Known about the structure:
The complex is a heterodimer of chains A (250) and B (112).
Chain A: H1 3-19, H2 25-43, H3 48-58, H4 61-72, H5 77-88, H6 91-102, H7 109-116, H8 121-130, H9 139-161, H10 170-190, H11 195-214, H12 219-249
Helix pairs in contact in A: 1-9, 2-9, 2-10, 3-9, 4-5, 6-8, 11-12
Chain B: H1 2-30, H2 38-60, H3 71-87, H4 92-109
Helix pairs in contact in B: 3-4
Amino acid sequence: MTGDSEIQRHQLVWFLRGMRGITSLPALILMASYVGFSAFALQSGLTRGEAVFMTLSIWALPAQMILIGTMVGGAPLAASFAAVTLSSIRMMPMVASIMPQMRGERTPVAILLFLSHFLAITSWVFATQRLEGVPRENRVAYFAGFGITLTLTNAAIVGVSYGVVSSFPPVIAGALFMMTPVYFVASIWASATQPVVKIAFALGIVLGPLLALWAPDFDVLYAGLGGGTVAYLIDRYRRRRLKVRAGAEA
Amino acid sequence: MVDGWWTYIAIVVAGFLATDIWRWLGVLAGNRLDDDSEALYWVRAVATALVMAVTAKLIVFPTGTLADSPLWLRLGAAGIGFAVFLCAGRRVVVGVAVPIVLLVAGLWWLGR
């Protein structure tokens, strides 16, 4: 057996180990959220094919909800694009923060660009928690196994549950809708390691609904840029004081 | 049929491109970003505030079935659930199960 095929066999093993993550708790909760999404898509007038295509091509639950919301409201394409792209800005730091951890020394950028599509909140939480325990040369294969499986499984779930959920009693349908936001709240707080993230978390939660009353078209932008900048400034002040205090004690 | 194709085009342009542009930029930036840079602190804060604003709006201004439920029930379920989640050592399963149970109990009690 040559060295190359040995490496490939290892990659396959780690790909399969990544696939096994489909039974982890975050993955199961996301699946329940996507059952809720399929009901939302049906109520909003999307076809089954459109709902599945949207899940595969966007793969970000908030962006999908926002796109449907603006399309149903009859907004022009540019307005839909603006609203969705604002909600997806968070993808940039999420992807950027995982890259140094995920890539090997010789991982082609094209592979990383392709795999970045499968990064959303759930796979980001999964990756930040588990990549450390995977040998560096196998991390790309491990993430690919998990990310691709998670996306394809949820697309299948949307296709199968479309039309089924609308016949659920309202209490069950309501519980499925509620699953998505409370899951985001818990998983993002649980994976927040830096104080700046917790401050921004609190400001975003408060400012989002408040600004929606005051500036319904730009609420998310204002809450994100404004709340995030204030959180950053508070945190910078906090870090400087810590530094000054450490300096004074030294 | 034209209407159908238009929806797919809208999904590709205003959904796929609008989202994946940021993922691609994230890959390019992540290949050179220093994890301790001030810029990354700020971007991380803005990103978190953005996604939490979206999340809070899903609870406060829901669409679909939940739109008929009282605001106090949704806020109470989410708030009490988060408090229990913090007390239970930040376990995600608790943070999801408690608000859902409270919401279902509330909806059932209100006879919906």
